[in-house]
Amino acid sequence: MSRSFGDEVASRVGVNGEPEILELDLMKDDKFIVVASDGVWEFLSNDEIAKIVAPFFELRNAEKAAEAVVRESYLSWKREEEGIVDDITCVIVFLDVKMTQQEPNPALLTHE
Predict the structure, then answer these.
(1) Considering the entire predicted model, what is its pTM?
(2) Residue 65 burial by CB count (10 A; 0-12/13-18/19+): exposed, middle or buried?
(3) Which pLDDT tens digit goes with each residue over 34-63?
(4) I want to staple 36 with a disulfide (CB 3.0 to 4.6 A). Which of 24, 53, 58, 90 is the partner?
(5) How far is Cα 88 from Cα 91, in angstroms, rounded to an integer?
(6) Where are the domains of the chain?
(7) d(CA 4, CA 11)
């Protein structure tokens, strides 16, 4: 998205800096949210992503779930586009997961 801000050449073909905003009401059965770039959504469907993420939800490991989605996107892209891979980003948020509380890493709290 950052390349869309002020990119006069790309603006000639329809790229713009206006965000696309979508609001959804979460339901009690919703388990996770996947925020990903077009490099993921172009090659994987919602159902495919849900099947990839579900086992990691059970393990309470959102980081590994995101890694698995990125890996599968990469492999799908390589199969479809023969060597061209760009823009694969994925963030996963698990909802209503009861995780054990852990102390923050002191090294991350310093502001040097």
Answers:
(1) 0.72
(2) buried
(3) 999 888 999 999 999 999 999 999 999 999
(4) 90
(5) 11
(6) 32-97
(7) 8
